[in-house]
Amino acid sequence: MNLSKGYLLVLVGLFAVLSLLLVLPFLQYVLAAVLLAYILFPLHRRLAPRTSPTISAFAMVVLAIAGFLIPFVVVIAVIAEDAVQLLQEFDADAIGLADIESQLEERTGLEVDLASTAADAGQEAGMFVLERTTEIVSTLTHVLIGLGLALFLIYYLLKDGRELMGWIRETTPLPSDVQDDLYGELDEVTRAVLLGHVLIAIIEGVIAGLGLFATGIPNAAFWTFIMIILSLVPLIGAFLVWGPAVVYLFVTGEPVLAVALFVYSAVVVGVADDYLRPIVVDRYAELSPAVIILGVLGGIYAFGIMGLFFGPVVLGAFKAVLSVVDDHYHRLEDGSDAAG
Prior knowledge:
This protein is mainly α. The chain has 13 helices and no strands. It folds into two domains: 25-171, no CATH class; 173-330. 83% of the residues lie in helices and 0% in strands. α2 (27-47) runs parallel beside α6, α8 packs antiparallel against α9 and α8 packs antiparallel against α11. Residues 90-95 have low confidence and may be disordered.
C-alpha cells in the first residue's frame, strides 16, 4: 500500500467515525425510518410512475403519519393512561388483592400486605416523575426532533432510493450477478423476518388480549401491549402475561373464567404461533426460533427498542451473506470475473 492509498483510507475511517457520532444520538429514529421506508417502498414503486417520485414519496410520508405515527401515539397514550392508573390510582378491592392475600396466608402461613406495597410503589413512581420534570421535557424535545428527522429520512429514502442503490452497486467491488444474489437474499430474509415476525407478534398479542378483555382482567389494554412486545420472542411470548392472568382469576374466585382463558389462550393463541410463524418466517427465511430469540434479545441491547425488529434481521442477513459467499467465493478468488 502506497502513501496516497493509506492517506485516503485514513480519511475514510476518520469521516466514518465522525458520521457515526452524528447518527448515534438519533439511531432509533434512523432505524425506524429505514424500517418504514422498506415497508412503504413497494407501494411507492407502483405509485411513482403514475405521478412522480417526489409526489409519491410525499404521499408515503403522509401515509406513514396517518397509518403508523398517529395510531402509535394514540396507542401509547392509551397504554400510558392505563399504566398511570395502575400505579397511581391503585384500587386493591378492584383487583381482589384482599382475596389474594388471604389465599397466600391460608396456604403459606405468611402475612403479606400487597395493597400497601403496591400503593407505596405508585407514590414513589409519582415522586420520581415530578423530580424528573426537566429531564422529561428534554426527552420530549428530543423525541419531536427525532420524529421530524425520521419523516424527512423516509421521504428522501423513497424519493432517492433508486439512485442510492445505484451508487451502492457502482461502488461495491463485486460482479453484478453476485450483487443480484446478495441483495436478493437480503431482501428475502428481511421481508420474511421483519414483516412476518412483527405481523405475527401483533396478531398473537391482539388475539391474546381479546381473551383478557373477555374475562375482565384489569388494565387489559396495557397487558395487550405487553403481550405484543413479548410475542416478538418465539416460544415464550404472550404466555408470560396470560399465564399469570389465569392464576389471578383462580385465586380471585373465578375458576370458570380461569379455565376459559386458559383453553382460549393455549389453543387459539398457540395455533397462531405454531402455524403462522413457520409459514411466514421459517418457510422463507429458514431461521430457527433460537436464532430469532437471540436476535430479539441481543438486538434490544445493541440497538434499543428498534432491536426488536432489526436484531433478527441482522442474524438473517449474516446467514444470507454466508450463503452468497459459499456460492461465489471460489469464482471470485480466481479473479475470473471483474466487478460490475
